[in-house]
Amino acid sequence: xxxxxVLDNVPSHPSEEELKDSxxxxxxxxxNVMALIQPMDQDVIESVKRRYRRKLPTALSExxxxxxxxxxxxxxxxxxx
Length: 81
Fold this sequence. Notes:
This protein is α+β, with helices and mostly antiparallel strands. The protein is built from 2 helices and 2 strands; from the N terminus they run ββαα.
């Protein structure tokens, strides 16, 4: 699996050197770009959240373990907001 990781230039993010991996390509945005593009990423974030909420319970139900139902119920309750 290959991943493109787009990060703003906040100092708390790992450096490009720390993120070097054959499966990860990190791209750092220029300073102050986030203020310009943030309104555009709202739909992307909402779409990711919807997919996460829909697929996570199914993925968890496929896991073996005694506490799977407890975890699934917790995830469903947490994501109903």
